[in-house]
Design a protein that fits this description.
By secondary structure, this protein is mainly alpha-helical. It has helices at residues 3-14, 26-34, 38-65, 68-75, 79-106, 113-129, 135-148, 151-179, 188-207, 216-232, 238-262, 269-282, 294-305, 310-327, 329-363. The protein is built from 15 helices and no strands.
């Protein structure tokens, strides 16, 4: 099997995609056998529920608003909007890859920036094209971990890198939603209080006394503390991680504004910024189909609450989805090149093994067959 194809299948199964999934460690396999495979079935059910959730949101939107707003929005996409979105995506991809390389280096599985950019483009394309919105990141972590000789660290580097970006996004969203008026402005004090409690709890876990037990939770907590300190809070990298994350969030908001103007939204930028922040946060919900679902639902609700019309929100979200998918197409080229390259290497290895086998047979001296008297 092609190695890239195998990694994609493993990535799909790792997030619960398919009843045949079994985790790697033998002890987990034995545990699932003892429980009748209930863990695998629950992961498969959760994977299907994520897809069904996104499909249900889209179905409700189309039933209430019709498909006309979606089609009208897609018809407004022009060449300049595609070029502008691709240019913004290049900047955000480079900054995201830089952030990933910093975190990976801190965890001892360094990835060169050039390779990180290519891998990040590929993961963005897979996230946009496959259900769940995270399969590309899982594939990126698996492949880098295998290349670095430590799959666990490779996956953790991707996880912490994405978590750092989302943490900065949440902080920026809180600032924007506290300063600018929005449909959720009245709820922001309570949201801010909850966020502060979460931050204090996280700081307590990081700076508190490390657990010394041998349970799975204690080991996981010790590993997480070490990862955060080495990968995210190292003095030489934490400022760069925050800076790159800020640029990435600004780029996503810029792409949303491009989509809004393309779809015909004429609201002022200051009115659009809080809506963009909330839609970007909704995109982190994993119940989607290639990114479609919660984004369109939240956009329709927010635009309606802001007096801009639910149909306008659906059109803007749809245009944004197409722009993001088009901007990630270089990742499809990276995937194809990787696929073809790994296939050629596999064919060469197979041919080499076959040649060695034939040569070995040729070296065996001929033994005369005895003839019965």
């Amino acid at each position: 099997m092609n190695p890239t194809h195998r990694d994609l299948r493993t990535s799909y199964r790792a997030v619960g995609g398919g009843p045949g999934y079994r985790p790697g460690p033998p002890e987990n396999v034995a545990a699932e056998k003892e429980t009748g495979g209930e863990g695998a079935m629950s992961r498969a059910a959760w994977a299907y529920m994520r897809v069904l959730g996104g499909a249900a949101i889209l179905a409700i939107l189309f039933c209430r608003l019709g498909i006309g707003a979606l089609v009208d929005g897609l018809r407004t996409i022009s060449g300049w909007s595609l070029v502008a979105a691709a240019a913004v995506a290049f900047v955000t991809t480079v900054c995201s890859a830089w952030r990933w390389s910093l975190v990976a280096r801190g965890l001892g599985v360094a990835v060169p920036l050039r390779g990180a950019i290519a891998a990040y483009y590929r993961s963005q394309f897979l996230n946009s094209a496959l259900p769940g919105g995270v399969l590309g990141d899982v594939h990126r972590g698996l492949q880098h971990g295998r290349d670095a000789g430590d799959v666990s660290r490779g996956l953790r580097a991707v996880g912490w890198e994405r978590l750092a970006g989302q943490a900065v996004q949440v902080v920026l969203a809180l600032i924007v939603l506290l300063v600018l008026p929005s449909p959720v402005h009245s709820s922001m004090p309570a949201v801010l209080a909850i966020a502060v409690l979460c931050v204090l709890g996280a700081v307590g876990l990081i700076r508190g006394r490390p657990p010394r037990g041998t349970s799975r939770w204690d080991r996981a907590l010790r590993t997480a503390r070490a990862d955060v300190r080495a990968g995210l809070l190292a003095p030489r990298t934490r400022a760069a991680i925050v800076l790159s994350s800020v640029v990435v969030v600004a780029g996503h908001m810029t792409t949303f504004l491009i989509a809004a103007r393309t779809a015909g939204a004429t609201a002022p930028v200051l009115q659009m910024l809080p809506l963009a922040m909330l839609v970007l946060l909704a995109m982190t919900v994993p119940t989607n189909i290639g990114g479609w679902g919660p984004r369109e639902g939240v956009a329709a609700w927010l635009f309606a609450a802001a007096g801009l019309g639910a149909g306008q929100g659906l059109a803007v979200a749809a245009v944004y989805g197409v722009l993001v998918l088009a901007a990630s197409l270089p990742g499809a080229a990276v995937l194809a090149i990787t696929w073809l390259g790994s296939g050629n290497r596999g064919s060469m290895r197979a041919a080499g093994s076959q040649s060695e086998g034939l040569a070995g047979k040729a070296d065996v001296p001929h033994q005369p067959v005895p003839v019965a008297a």
